[in-house]
Amino acid sequence: MNDKVDKLVIFLAKRDGIDKLVKTFQYVSKLLVWHLETTNPNAAHRAKQCEVASGLSRKAFRTGRFLTGFNALRRNPGPTPTYRFLSVFANAGEMVYFFFDHFLWLSRTGVLDANLARRMSFISAFGESLGYVFFCVIEFIMIKEGIEEERRIKKGLLSESNDKGDEIKKIQVDRVMRLMAVAANLADLIIGLADIEPNPFCNHAVTLGISGLVSAWAGWYRNWPT
Asked: What is the Cα–Cα distance from 206 to 192, expressed in whole angstroms?
């Protein structure tokens, strides 16, 4: 029990940990609004207030985060030219997303002209979606390389070896983490597309709610202390 409490404390000490928790509140609230709006308008209104407050809070938490992509490119550009090429577009898209998200937050809180919100939302979502596409491509490439490496290790496994077993386990754990990243990126891509090109599927409350929770819980899994 104490170990779980310690892990929760470590998780919530991270900015990403707080973000995933508040994101869960936001999208659970969105699903509650959809579920209650016809049967209990008062409860639906309260859930909507929680959704809006959670969304604005997350934007405040992400202040300055656009520098993360720049730092990632500066410190670890990637092992191969292809990886570096994809990383530039992936991180550039994410930087655009977080940078213009500041202006979206300020316009929705009334600091800037509220009419800017729609334009800032479009630019932010476009950068976000572009970044997620390239991040997914990177993850699939790394998963493929991991599978090939695992096969090479297994073919050379003539006898029991703890070192080789540990190496295989490390590759498998990395693959699970990358699949979680793909799930989160695809879910967030759906949310981004709802802003770029509104349509009945992406903009439906259930689609957005489930996508938001998939993204939040995949991120929760990846950030949970091991």
From this structure: 15
